[in-house]
Design goal:
Length: 455
């Protein structure tokens, strides 16, 4: 039997013999980007790209099982989004992992850029731990800076900032692919990117497009457009675009104020040190004070009475409406739930975006639970009448269809997902349900109601 001292020596020798991997689960050759507390802000939080970050411990069995799928997801998302990992077993990273709310391993978080620089939206990923599911979830959240153009507004878009280079994707698809969205991020601020459907025949004929998809570059300054003939892969397309403008550095290029500050710092002899990455806490605070606070978009209109709801959305000739059905609150003074707030803010953001672009969008409304017609509408559509969460529905009384926003995935009402759902409706994509009888207010019912009201 070993003496205590001998046992300790044996354990120590075994530990010393174990291979040391400073990078944790992922080697330097791994497609997964390894970040720590210092580099997270610079590489993830301040980036224009969407990222997914795994918080792990090398000894965790589930983390080891996830590694092959996670590395495969990183390869598939290369050039489209970032796939990163943080070793929470590293003492230097433990405070950071705690700040990020990590309570178990592995924890996956999707980081999506927002309007506030350095203040991205961070949400837990709780989907399947497969490469495909991870890729789909991240790709869905890639910001969309691609403008959809038609024959009617092509000239207006082309005349905007005449000297600025532009690129147009001609496609048969109604959705905006991850690749073209990623390219728009690469050249954000230097090349305006748009997408045109094949059915826009005037635009197709104007640029002599014979096959789809086709990519056209307009270098600006009156130069003739150039049709891309290479592979539809990011690398060659970036090189093609680069003849008109250089791609952005990653993370996002500094603002003019930040640049001027850097120049002053250099002039004074003070250079940033290697252990003080750009996008650190200090520079984020400075940027917050120097940049104006963005004004929140105006709230969407409210349909507070049955008559208003019926007149606008439930009459026989009513077109498409999107309605946010607000849940009941036990106490009138109780603040709305987080999901209700997020849903309304996302709808407001989408509506505001279309207003700024001067593009036509069907009306978006909120319907409070105090509106008696809201309960009847929920019942008619088979929605829970005592629902404690907000429901978003689109319906078209004239054509007799309706569609429910699928919020089953952790009640995710993020702007990216809500906008994608609305875009699909605009383009006539996705399943539609037939409106049940009794939802649309017929002429006879309206007349009977009017007679009753006069009594």
């Amino acid at each position: 039997m070993l003496q205590p001292s001998s046992a300790l020596l044996l354990v120590a020798s075994l530990l010393a013999a174990l291979p040391v991997n400073a990078d944790g689960l992922y080697t330097k050759k791994s497609p997964v980007l390894q970040v720590n507390q210092k580099s997270y802000n610079q590489l993830i939080a301040n980036s224009n790209y969407t990222s997914i970050v795994e918080f792990y411990a090398p000894w965790c069995g589930h983390c080891q099982n996830l590694k092959p799928a996670y590395e495969k997801a990183a390869k598939n998302l290369d050039g489209l989004a970032k796939v990163a990992a943080v070793n929470c077993d590293d003492d230097a990273n433990k405070p950071f992992c705690g700040q990020m709310g990590v309570q178990g391993f592995p924890t996956l978080k999707i980081v999506t850029p927002s309007k506030k620089p350095g203040k991205p939206r961070v949400e837990d990923y709780q989907g399947p731990r497969t490469a495909k599911a991870i890729v789909d979830a991240v790709a869905e959240r890639i910001p969309n800076h691609v403008k959809r153009i038609t024959d009617k507004n092509l000239d207006e878009w082309l005349s905007e900032d005449g000297e600025t280079p532009k690129a147009i994707l001609f496609t048969e698809k109604g959705t905006t692919s991850s690749l073209i969205r990623a390219l728009a991020i690469d050249f954000l601020g230097s090349i305006k990117v748009a997408q045109i459907r094949d059915k826009e025949t005037a635009a197709v004929d104007r640029f002599g497009i014979a096959e789809f998809p086709s990519l056209v570059l307009l270098p600006g300054n009156g130069k003739e457009h150039i049709v891309y003939n290479g592979e539809l892969k990011k690398g060659p397309i970036v090189e093609f675009f680069s003849q008109a403008a250089a791609p952005n550095a990653d993370p996002a290029p500094a603002t003019e104020k930040t640049k001027s500050h850097s120049s002053k710092s250099s002039a004074s002899g003070k250079e940033p040190t290697s252990n003080e990455p750009l996008g650190s806490e200090d520079s984020t605070i400075e940027a917050k004070h120097s940049a104006p606070t963005p004004t929140p978009p105006p709230a969407i209109d409210t349909l507070g009475t049955p008559d208003a709801l019926e007149a606008v959305c439930l009459a026989p000739k009513s077109g498409t409406c999107v309605l946010a059905l607000i849940p009941e609150s036990g106490d009138p003074d109780t603040e709305a739930s987080a999901s209700t707030k997020e849903a309304l803010e996302s709808l407001a953001e989408v509506a505001h975006k279309h207003t700024q672009r001067k593009t036509k969008l069907f009306p978006l409304y909120s319907v409070p639970a105090s509106n008696a017609a809201a309960k009847a509408l929920r019942a008619g559509l088979g929605l829970p009448e005592d629902s404690k969460s907000v429901e978003i529905v689109a319906l078209n009384a004239r054509r007799g269809w309706w569609r429910l926003y699928d919020s089953s995935d952790r009640a995710d009402f993020s702007p990216v997902r809500v906008e994608a759902w609305i875009d699909a409706i605009r383009l006539g994509e996705g399943p539609r349900n037939k409106l049940p009888e009794g939802i649309v207010v017929t002429t006879d019912e309206a007349a009977k109601k009017a007679d009753h009201d006069e009594l």
